[in-house]
Write a structure and sequence with these properties.
alpha+beta, Eukaryotic RPB6 RNA polymerase subunit
Length: 80
């Protein structure tokens, strides 16, 4: 029997967090952005599929670096 691998537990995969609608709105207003200006991530991407995202949601990525405590990125969810 094949053992399942949880990609979210891998050391090289950054933490992914689904923002609430309010958090997303505040982020876009704070940085004077539109959702179309954010990098994209597919709704069925294996790393976020467990978050059950919808198209238009925003995902926050937290990457830990050796030279800095953490770096934060944002992506918008799209259908394929």
């Amino acid at each position: 029997m094949k053992e399942e691998f949880d990609i979210t537990k891998h050391i090289l995969v950054p933490k992914h967090i689904l923002l609430t609608k309010d958090e997303a709105k505040k982020l876009l207003e704070k940085h004077n952005l539109t959702i179309a200006q954010l990098p994209k991530i597919f709704k069925k991407d294996p790393i976020i599929i467990n978050l059950n995202p919808s198209a238009g949601d925003i995902i926050k990525l937290i990457r830990n670096k050796d030279t800095a405590n953490e770096t934060i990125y944002y992506r918008t969810v799209i259908d394929e």
